[in-house]
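TEACHING EXERCISE
Course module: macromolecular assemblies
Task: Read the component lines below, then compare them to the predicted structure of the full complex.
Student: A.B.
Group: 4
Components provided:
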Amino acid sequence: MEEHVLAAVVQIRSGRIEARPKRDGKLRHVIESQQFTVPLLMELFDRARGMERVVARGGSLEYQNRIMATLFYAPSTRTRLSFEAAMHRLGGRILSTEHAQAFSSEIDGEQVEDTIRIIGGYSDVIVIRHYQEGGAKRAAQVSPVPVINAGDSEGGQHPTQALLDLYTIYRERPLDGLSVAIIGELDKGRTARSLAYLLAKFERVKIFFVSPPELQMKPDILSYLDEHGVHYELEPDMNRVIGEVDVVYQTRIRPERTSGSLQQYAINSALLPKMKQDVLILHPLPRTVELDQSVDQDPRALYFRQAQNGLYVRMALLTLLLEKN
Amino acid sequence: MEEHVLAAVVQIRSGRIEARPKRDGKLRHVIESQQFTVPLLMELFDRARGMERVVARGGSLEYQNRIMATLFYAPSTRTRLSFEAAMHRLGGRILSTEHAQAFSSEIDGEQVEDTIRIIGGYSDVIVIRHYQEGGAKRAAQVSPVPVINAGDSEGGQHPTQALLDLYTIYRERPLDGLSVAIIGELDKGRTARSLAYLLAKFERVKIFFVSPPELQMKPDILSYLDEHGVHYELEPDMNRVIGEVDVVYQTRIRPERTSGSLQQYAINSALLPKMKQDVLILHPLPRTVELDQSVDQDPRALYFRQAQNGLYVRMALLTLLLEKN
Amino acid sequence: MEEHVLAAVVQIRSGRIEARPKRDGKLRHVIESQQFTVPLLMELFDRARGMERVVARGGSLEYQNRIMATLFYAPSTRTRLSFEAAMHRLGGRILSTEHAQAFSSEIDGEQVEDTIRIIGGYSDVIVIRHYQEGGAKRAAQVSPVPVINAGDSEGGQHPTQALLDLYTIYRERPLDGLSVAIIGELDKGRTARSLAYLLAKFERVKIFFVSPPELQMKPDILSYLDEHGVHYELEPDMNRVIGEVDVVYQTRIRPERTSGSLQQYAINSALLPKMKQDVLILHPLPRTVELDQSVDQDPRALYFRQAQNGLYVRMALLTLLLEKN
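Instructor-supplied answer key:
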């Protein structure tokens, strides 16, 4: 990687965040999707393709002495098992918590920093899902080992989800020039937020944020896109964009959060003929009413492959973090 | 295995249950105990005996690249750890959930099918305990990897429990000609139900269902036994059969479920002299008042060996499923 | 080890506790800290130093066929993960429960003895945290494999915590002649209790129990110290001893348990100048208000190294138990 690229990588060392890159330009923690540069993304995706072959051959034992700890303060079995499967397919070992909040239940005042200092002495990499925005960043500031943010609060980020989302698109077509509809409850959509940051890295991308006005994407993301010259539109009517975009990225809307009809934002088989013949239909899952099961049979529905790609991308990320520390 | 045998094996492929066997006659999913034929049982039991030797030698590393996921929507630490120990003794790896209902807590409408499609991409075999009757079958219908039913609802089945129950008897005596008392709360006894299906596979078996009339075995099992020409009796009085049978299979009765005296259905040391000198006393465990600890010292009490046999039978089953897929 | 030493090791065999040592003098279960003799402690600490080197080299695969079960009836993720990391660094395998009380939730009357008999057939060593005082001892009385007490109730013991506490002191200075202030809610402090038993093994030790009178150390420990000729004082005023002692062992005080001011028993940076220049500041963690984060930067604050030492001591203990059974 070149020097100017490395400068964009957030480097965090024990005790403080460093604005400048580490001398050796290595990726240390994964906290926010915007810390990934295009060259780093390409290196990661290259490795992920290699991991597809590793898994097809039955996995590796290369990392059989390494330990990954999954600290899930908020339960998310699916994401947790995706990381744990990735570590297993690399031959590694797991320290696991389904409900790490049992930590703090013992004594209420306990700080995540103390936990991380201790668990960092027991493991080689920590995957954390924290209930507070910024929880993963606080963890990284004190951790002796790499920290991966597996989602921090509803309005925070979920960078590895965005990485696998982007990898799924990348496997199908060039990322420059892409038009994407991101649909759902976007103000509290950490996967949508993290994906927007990543899409902004590419040329001539166009993003339609499709949501009831009261649930639209928050200004911090929109400012970021403005600064980076990314074309976007806020669109309350899904029907106006569904036929134009290369990627339909559907996310959930909880009925209790909107006064309007959710039906306007749901994808079902009736909508399929209106979409481009080579559209990619993605969803981070789990889903409820916003994505009907009748869509599953359509060859353009890629969400289960997307979930599978999470395995390869997380394997790739773990090798990046483990070999370099 | 011969062709006519294979026809009895329930074969399930992605998307639908197939009545006819797979071409290659391989066991794919384990959902109901009645899908096991006598030759398949004998193959399984043969392997289980081999597994006793493998464990005595300290286990194997043969499956060190394979991953088993345990999805327990209802907690059952004992059954879960039995499966996980089996996978470990084969050298394999575990993705584990103590309370997989955390999955669906996230979004209420989520379907088990979506979860299975995803976890099936992360693992080589899935062990599921679902809170709904038929949950395991629904899982098998969409799973890309073998599914094992580890208990589906109180009135459903628990086929691997029945397999280890039968294996425990098989290790002691011939299965043809056996007389068995199955005692307890039989209408909601999935282990009793699964065992009845298996016993029906053998010649000249006689089953006494011993239970308060209001908690007796349900008609679906009785019809199955009628169809297969199995001799059975419904018996409210334990004392009338306890001295006659080769096997006493005790299960729980919850006090709140019967108006009568539970004492009539409890086994304690006072009853031991009335039983056959070579009777086998079994219980799927956990137990409460229906099986007194004073029975534990009797050499005819086999329930702890029975639990241990669960390890060998589950190891055998895992090798059958993993080598053939 | 010599014969007279072995006599002090509590030996427990299936079904009953034996007062006399096993013929071969081997350590079988770890239930109470007082079962450790000085020579056994020295053997353990020697091994622990070896484990520091094993971990620095990236761990071992020596125990890759062995299984450790962690049965935590009360959740304690930190202690559980410390044991699990220790087993992983030895190459071993884990059967894990975050909330083993799910066992007993199934049927209320279930006894820990049944669970242990079963899990002992699935594993090579059991680590148990039980909610009842004596729970671990009851487990050891029936277990076919070694049992380690990872904390039994608030007023019970936590022997491995005391072992790592003592190891942390041992790494810094001689244990004979030590003066130690043990501060906090001592009547319900199982780590303080277990440590007091261990300190009593050494010569010319002086212990100050610093606590509000209503939360002072219970008479059973004080009698034990009297019997073993250990000098101790009950001290309500931390300031009177803080400048004299070689070791400050701080533990929690829950605000709701005392009517007095907790501030009197809290350690913060203002107190640091009053302490000896080479004092060792320890805390079993987790902490709340009783140990301010401003203390963390002081080189005499050893509590994170103490937590790290838990890994080495538990690895050492596991090798002692696993190789000898």
